[in-house]
């Protein structure tokens, strides 16, 4: 598992983020505080407090190029 801290402040950035992570077959979660949602769920993401940094947990040993793909969202 690999974790990244990201920032999603605008509705458009949430849409772009979901489009990017849906290209990958492995599971990913977003968590903030005690709330955890599927990173591929746009509705789940909007249930989080987007004013704070969010942790992206990627559940695979080979994350590949995901760090480059989400670079614009890294906090």
Structure write-up:
With 75 residues, the chain is of the alpha+beta class. The chain has helices spanning 11-21, 42-46, 66-69; strands at 2-6, 27-32, 35-38, 54-59. Strands 1-4-2-3 form a 4-stranded antiparallel sheet, with no helix packed on it. β2 and β3 form a beta hairpin. The longest helix is centred in the N-terminal third of the chain and has 11 residues, at 11-21. The protein is globular, with a radius of gyration of 11 Å. The two termini are 19 Å apart.
Quick tags:
single chain; about 80 residues; alpha+beta; four-stranded antiparallel sheet
Beta strand %: 25-35%
SSE order, one letter for each helix or strand:
EHEEHEH
The whole-number mean of residue pLDDT values reads 94
Describe the largest sheet.
4 strands, antiparallel
Gist of the model:
By secondary structure, the protein is of the alpha+beta class. The protein has helices at residues 11-21, 42-46, 66-69; strands at residues 2-6, 27-32, 35-38, 54-59.
Give the secondary structure arrangement, pairings included.
Elements: E1 2-6, H1 11-21, E2 27-32, E3 35-38, H2 42-46, E4 54-59, H3 66-69
Antiparallel strand pairs: 1-4, 2-3, 2-4
